[in-house]
Amino acid sequence: MLSDRDNNYLPDVNFDEHLNEIKKILDLILEGKVTYRKYKEAKDSVKALFKDEFFDYWELSIGNDEIANMSPGKANLALLKLLIELSESNCPILIDQPEDNLDNRSIYTDLVQFIRKRKENRQIIIVTHNPNIVVGADSENVIIANQNGQDKNRENKSFRFEYVNGALENTYANKNENVESGVLFSMGIRENVTEILEGGREAFKKREEKYGF
């Protein structure tokens, strides 16, 4: 009931005046003293009169940044954190490319750390092309997909789409060098991640040399 609401939730609303106004309009409807414009019957006006028009208003900010002033990537990250933190469900979370519009520093310092924290009590399944998420978030199970004919020298064994999965600790190179095993099964999970997400071992080494590591 409106009269039972805790006034502390809406300090700017005078509930007594609001309730008296509703009673006044209801009496006019019941006495047939209302001229209808939108509604043809009195019952429709009564339903509209008692419709709950109250709503929650949220202001979301991180540090000194309000969500209206954030970049699209940071705003998406803020909303993602809000939705997950407010959820009381224990079911798995499926996220598609949360790294979009985020720079790599934000991905590692904000997104990855948040995933590492939340995965302790929720299973998180992420679709991503970013190695920082796969490696930095310490993924327990990496699923790699390959579509036949998309890239040169990356042919599948039998099917148009093939998958391989395992931990990052799974590593071997050219185990089946002389067998038509398909690109995914010719190397371990670590090598597949290096090839797909890092651009290959050579590209990784060149970046390492440029940075002077």
Please specify the SSE layout and strand pairing.
Blueprint: H1 15-30, H2 42-49, E1 61-62, E2 65-66, H3 72-86, E3 93-96, H4 104-118, E4 124-127, H5 131-136, E5 142-147, E6 161-166, H6 189-197, H7 201-211
Helix pairs in contact: 1-2
Please give a handful of descriptors for the protein shown.
2 domains, 11% strand, 6 strands, 38% helix, elongated, alpha+beta, single chain, 213 residues, two-stranded parallel ribbon
Report on the architecture of this protein.
- Helices cover 38% and strands 11% of the residues.
- The chain has helices spanning 15-30, 42-49, 72-86, 104-118, 131-136, 189-197, 201-211, and strands spanning 61-62, 65-66, 93-96, 124-127, 142-147, 161-166.
- Strands 1-2 form a two-stranded antiparallel ribbon.
- The protein has two domains: 2-49, no CATH class; 89-211, no CATH class.
- It is of the alpha+beta class and 213 residues long.
- It is elongated.
- The mean pLDDT is 84.
- The protein contains seven helices and six strands; from the N terminus they run H-H-E-E-H-E-H-E-H-E-E-H-H.
Q: What distance separates the N and C termini? A: 67 Å
Global morphology: elongated
Report mean pLDDT, rounded to a whole number: 84
Number of strands: 6
- Structural class call reads alpha+beta
Tally of alpha and pi helices = 7
Strand numbers in spatial order across the main sheet: 1-2
Bin the strand percentage: 5-15%
